[in-house]
Amino acid sequence: MKLDLSASSGAPAKRPPVYRWRYFIVLVAIVLGALFGQFFPGPAVAVKPLSDAFIKVLKMMLPPIIFVTMTVGLGSLGDIRRVGRLGWKSILWFEIGTTLALLIGLFVVHLVKPGAGLNVDPATLDVKAVSGYAKVAQEMSITDYFLHLIPGGVGEPFVNGDLMQVLFLSVLAGLALGALGEKAARVRDLMEEVTGVLFKVVGYLMYFAPLAAFAAMAFTVGKYGFGSIAKLASLVACFYATGLLFIFGVLGGVLRAHGFSMWKFLRYIKEELLLTLGCSTQEPALPLLMAKLERLGMPRAVVSFVVPTGYSFNLDGACVYLTMAFVFLAQATNTTLTWGQELTILGVMLLTSKGAAGVPGGGFVALAATLAAVPSVPLAALTLLLGVDRFMSEARSLINMIGNGVAALIVARWEGEIDVAQANRVLDGAIESAPTVSLAPAKALS
């Protein structure tokens, strides 16, 4: 069964005009939201609940979607060794990608020096403004992080919306489903049908995406204003430029080496990019991205494993942000960092970037955790970023989502389970979708 948000199961149908033009409608909504926030800041802040409600409903849908797709996908592999192979290849790329993101952020911030000359005295900053982030960061010990992966009850992850715990349950259930083979055929059939229903619901929700994007952008501009960027314009501009360099230079180069074009891929997922930009989070776009990747002819096992897992472990945008923000704060407060300290920071950030996955204000929390672990830069310096973090969170989310899509393509290529020529024809728009590749045994569902 192919996950299609625009048509029922079966042969792919031509997407309706509403779907084809949805990205344009979302773009218009984002522009109108920015204008509304600039000229009517009071009412603009008041419309935020519209965006919150949309994101909350989609977050409600994510745990069951990820559980059923990953369970069926891993169960179709039928062999724990194949699951392990898919797992270590995914983790390998996650570590390569996030390390490259950390390094490129570190390189650019040293090259441009956006914080040099600010001469901020940490004693004049109000640490109370970031005390909430610091408190969460202090609770992010490695032991607690791994213990948190295990839910207190089977239903707890679905109630709390904790995707890390959902992933844990999905892996266990997928392994059991694969081990049972044909004995669990009815369970697979049922989960396939549930998957179709859940994606159909997401398809309905997407009609409200422009309204949510309008409200989110209106709130951001109305609350913080474009003027707040002016004080730290060099950092914001530097971060966005580094993000583009990472996407087209690093990820684009890797994609090209694997037979794909970054420009074509970005054009293919333009709806998901605009939705992420408008809502400042990649969560609403995850189901859509998974469906798009499967239309490329990618096996469901790869899509359902790499994308949700990457949401927690492959945060490229957060990694670019972490190194740039940390060194920026050091420059702004005239704190000298040795190369030994910076190497230590890189190692700590590889952990903190993952430990803050799914936490509200995750990028800020991860930065606070890094400052706590390597206390060379005062924690109070975080207040310098409060006014512009919301604007940078949009870029973080975009880079994160693009990175997860690229990771799925790379892992599928490493597995030899995607027809590059067919996938490129889909990216070119020559055909609506490629046939889905299956990793399943002959009688199992693909």
What can you see in these coordinates?
- With 446 residues, the chain is mostly helical.
- The protein has a single domain, classed as Sodium:dicarboxylate symporter (Proton glutamate symport protein), CATH 1.10.3860.
- It has 22 helices and no strands.
- The protein has helices at residues 17-20, 22-39, 41-46, 48-77, 80-112, 131-138, 142-148, 156-160, 163-180, 185-205, 209-224, 227-231, 233-257, 262-268, 270-279, 286-295, 300-313, 316-332, 339-355, 362-373, 389-415, 420-428.
- α13 packs antiparallel against α18 (316-332), α16 (286-295) runs parallel beside α21 and α18 packs antiparallel against α21 (389-415).
- 48% of the residues are buried.
- The model is unreliable at 4-19 and 438-446 (pLDDT under 50).
